[in-house]
UniProtKB/TrEMBL annotation:
EC number: 2.1.1.222, 2.1.1.64
CDD domains for the chain: AdoMet_MTases
Provenance organism: Polaribacter marinivivus
Domain Methyltransferase: residue ranges: 43-156
Protein name: Class I SAM-dependent methyltransferase
Keywords for this protein: Methyltransferase, Transferase
SUPFAM superfamilies: S-adenosyl-L-methionine-dependent methyltransferases (SSF53335)
A Pfam family the protein falls into: Methyltransf_31
Amino acid sequence: MKKKDWFTDWFNTPYYHTLYKHRNDIDAQLFMKNITAFLSLPKTTHILDLPCGKGRHSVFLNSLGYKVTGGDLAENSIKFAQQFENESLQFRVHDMRKPFNNKYDAVFNLFTSFGYFEDDNEDLLILENIKKGLKENGLFVFDFLNAIKVKNTLVKEEVKKVEDITFYIKREIKDGFILKNISFFADGKNHSYTERVKFLDISKMKDYFNKVGFTITEIFGDYKLNKFDSENSDRLIFVAK
Ligand SMILES: C[S@@+](CC[C@H](N)C(=O)[O-])C[C@H]1O[C@@H](n2cnc3c(N)ncnc32)[C@H](O)[C@@H]1O
């Protein structure tokens, strides 16, 4: 039997949301406020937030007046997000490796929601799906980790207590992937998950975007929209058409 992909399991657990609790709504709201203002997006814009997780960006974007659709593979996250639905805010289970049924004015791929797959062709397939899902002159906002900074500042071992769970975290860069092993005891059992995100630096990402025919119009290095700097920036953010 084929082993389930790590991202199908881990993101669907409550423990993932506990560990990343600090990545809260404040981060999400600051970024969304800045990027929508920078892009001068009209209120008629229909945004696809993919993958949306539990909907923290989607809900805020909708509160700013935008029509938003959120899609994610994790059923539990979508079920949670659906409590916030209204006429202009919808959530759906969707695998971003599959094409979309609709066309959008903008697609947002936020908070390192890319690079999970072994094969580069799967990464390209996702970008192609996004491109096909955009209306003419549609915009793509892509927010990924800065691989160079991750490499230069890698903390190999860390112990983190969040609520009543102690997470033992080990990080390494191996075979072109940034690996983060997370083990902990919770609900009467030992658990262990490994996040695997491809080591995609700015040149590799630019190469991907060129291959699928995206034109990159802006490159930012953080949620305040400062310029990208490969040594110091926390994020790699592209705006593309
Ligand atoms: C790091 S989280 C970020 C979620 C959200 N953007 C946020 O900032 O809260 C990555 C998300 O990607 C989703 N995901 C992973 N693989 C996916 C796929 N093939 N299709 C759709 N969503 C996927 C996971 O379920 C998870 O919610």
